[in-house]
Fold this protein.
Amino acid sequence: MARIAAVTVDVWRGGSRAAEPVSDTLGEMAKDGYDIWVIGGLVRDTLRQEVGGVAPVETKGDLDLTGSVPPGHFAEGVREMVGRAELSIRFNPFSGVVAVSHEAAGSDRVLEYASLKGTNLGEGEAWTFSCDLAEDSEWRDLTINTLAYDWRAELIADPTGEGLDDVKTMTLRPPAKPKSRPGFRAHLLFRYLKFVRRWPDASLHAVRRVLQDEFVQFREDVRMLSSPQLKALLKPFGTSQPAQIACVLALGASLAPVCDWDEMFSDVIEGTA
């Protein structure tokens, strides 16, 4: 069941600098009745600092937002501001993602907005968008990454009802059964491995169960990836492909020892031999 919780920590503190160039635009959209939430690492890591007693988090200086604003409308609203602030904007109409970056710094991202995703999708269809955090949460990797912060009301929305507790207990738990959209399980898999690496002491029972129940489907999704897609997903795990594969296999073995990780990446392993 979804939960709403007040927070004593200022989640917005780390993101306000990133949002400053477009803060007027965000405020105008909120006045028009749209919901805009801070989501992702800033929320998760700040709450982990508060409830878990971990060291203060160094933010990257960028901001992840979601909300009910249609992606095209958000892009147009922000575009009116970016010229004055020496920012560039990229809008992907298929995914609904709007990325704002510093022009001088090239890829130095300021913020990224992704409209809330709907659940009524068929395979290969363009994304449909929603006004519902609960629907959107079914497309996210872990409950800890579904937590959304309303900086105006200073409230945390926990659409799965488990995200806040999972931050406290360092539990990695998928919010829903993985969708059958092509490539989606492959994306989830690498996200799971990323957090196993980042949170080595986390409870893995829930993720392990999903992988063991649907390992064949995860394996087929990975094998369907194009070479550039796989290269992008492997990039955070090492400086060369052999090192990346070795890291992924070691993380996979610690996550779900009964699964045949060598089989999943057999084509890539043979290609690096």
Notes: The two ends are 49 Å apart (CA to CA).
